[in-house]
Structures are given as C-alpha cells and as structure tokens.
C-alpha cells in the first residue's frame, strides 16, 4: 500500500508530538512542500487544542507567573533581536550540508549508493538511511521485513505502483515487493526509515545486502 | 471520562478573546493580556504536562511554554491559527523539547525541536486563510461534541498521554486495527480525514 501523502493517522501522531525524531523529520520535510497536508495538520492541531481544553485543569503554583516575568525582564524585548534565519530545511541543518550529492555516499551496487545517518538519532532503534539511485538506474528488487517510510528528496523514481516525485511520501511493508527505477535527469535521492532490514528478492540475493549493518 | 463543553462562541468570532489578547502581547508586549492568557491556559498546560507523564516537570513546562509564547508572540497571526491552537503547538513543542533534553545522551543533538515540529502560521509564504480555518475549526468543534465516547477516548490518549496508536491499543486491550478504525471514524466525522485511500 503506498500513498503519496502521509496518512492521516501519521499526521495525527505528528500533531500530537508522539513521533520519533526521524519520523517527524520525514513528515516535516513533506509538510514544508505540501500545502494540502499542512492544512490537514492545522486541522489536527485545532483538534489537539480542543482536546486539551476539554480536560481538567491543574492549578499552577502561586509564584510561577512572577518567575516568568522575572525571566522575561532579564531578556531583550521580543523582536528586539532578529536572529538570522537559517533557510536550510531540517535535514540539511542536521547534516550541515548544502548539497546532498556531496555527502560521503557508499556505493553498494552499480547504480545504488547509501549514506547511513542512523547515528544522528542515537535514541533510535530504527535505521535511517539516505539512498541514491543514479539517474536511469535500477535498484534490486526487494521486499521489506518491517515497514519502510520514505520521502523523495531529489529526482524521482517509478515502480509498479506509480511515479514518485520530489517530496512524495511512501510507506511500504512486507507485502510490497518493488523494483524502483530512477527517472528523469537527476539522481534520485530519498530518505528512508527502516524498521527492519530489507530482503532482496531477485538475483542480487547473494550480494551483500546494503541495508544490513 | 472526557467532557467536551461546547464553546462554539470562541471559534465563531473571527477574533476570539484569546486571539485578541495574544495579539496585544505580540504587538505591545501587553503584560495584562499576557497574564490573562496565563490564567486561562496555564492550568490546562499544567494538566497536559501531568497527563503526559511529566508530573515533576509540570511547573517547568508551564514556565517554558509561557516564555516561548512571550518570545514568539510577535509572529502570531490570528488569521492563520486560533490562539488556543497556536498555544497548543507551542506546548507540544516544549514538551517534545523537554523530553529530548531529559533523554539526551552525550551526543550533541544537531536538529532543533522547532525544525522538526511546526507551529502553524510561521510559514511566511502561506496565503492568509482565515475563513477556511475558521470554518474547519467550527466544524471540528461542533462535531466533536457528538463523537461517541470510545472514539474520543482514543484520540484523547494520543494527544494527552503522548501515546502512539500501538500503545493505546495495548492499554485498552483492543487490536491496533480497532484503534485505527476508531480514530479514522472520528476523523471522518470531524472531516479531518480527506485524502486517505483506506478509510
Ligand atoms: Zn501531502
């Protein structure tokens, strides 16, 4: 089952703040480029606010407001200092790069390279990898043992279920065997979160599985 | 267990009282308005912290949320989000931030909470959509009152107790599929669910 947008339940977990950092990153990158999903998240955020509003209240300690005033008195007025905005998105900030193509990619197969960024998420048991497929290149046919959440960052790929363009969001599970091919002029770069290693299905099976650590 | 008081008047007016107060804080650093917001939202946020398993950090969270509201109020635009929604996302972000700090290993976290979790209306290029958002808020508020208890329970657990759908299923001892279908049903009634293929 694939979909080019995150499903509403994932957006709800995003709105509620229950996603892990890498999953939040994938959703955020999609939201940055998808007004449709942004408006769905806006609606879910209003739902969250109404849920909070419907719950009981807990009295705040007597001195808390004064403590807050003391803190704001100790800092410059809001808007007084304009911090220069870093225009890069969360992923580029995380990797501190302006160009994903220049990352230390590891070539795994003729057309496919990976760059493992799991170490950027130390609390995470899932694998977080960037995958690059050379323009026109084919990835080996594979299936997934757990779920794989992917967002296309550059270029596009096609598989049996359709075309996935930049910022498209895909979730694949063990029922999906696919054989992505990069289309267009650019190399196709995607960010994936793997809950379990991939299982190669075709003639590549005997090669070292690039997705096993 | 969960009571939903109808407070439709807040969303009905294009400028509900809380949004007006928040604008005053943003434009004039109005401390009286800030205090009114604190009196209204402070106890809600404290409960939110406790429900989310942060009883010992509840006061700290309230403080951090209001410091953040003060600092960012100049970015608030009532046309893009109701004050309650905007404050909810700030509270959520501060909660995420606090948990990240508590869990922080010696490894430096290079991505800020704010880079991952968005606050509505801070995307500069967003067109002004006040009418659309007011209608959507009113629709959600009106249909929320009519949702069956079991659907509200699962949604409240996700929002208030920081639980994934998987954990909610384990807690209520019902299959994950049932949790998901309850949420989907609820979101369908709230008309939040627009685009999903399976519903
Ligand atoms: Zn989308």
From TrEMBL, chain B:
Gene3D superfamilies: 1.10.1740.10, Winged helix-like DNA-binding domain superfamily/Winged helix DNA-binding domain (1.10.10.10). It comes from the Bacteria. Transmembrane segments: none annotated. Residues 138-190 form the RNA polymerase sigma factor 70 region 4 type domain. It holds the Pfam family Sigma70_r2. InterPro entries: RNA_pol_sigma-70-like (IPR039425), RNA_pol_sigma-70_dom (IPR014284), RNA_pol_sigma70_ECF_CS (IPR000838), RNA_pol_sigma70_r2 (IPR007627), RNA_pol_sigma70_r4_t2 (IPR013249), RNA_pol_sigma_r2 (IPR013325), RNA_pol_sigma_r3/r4-like (IPR013324), WH-like_DNA-bd_sf (IPR036388). The keyword DNA-binding applies. Keywords: DNA-binding, Sigma factor, Transcription, Transcription regulation. Residues 37-105 form the RNA polymerase sigma-70 region domain. The keyword DNA-binding applies. Belongs to the sigma-70 factor family. ECF subfamily. This is RNA polymerase sigma factor.
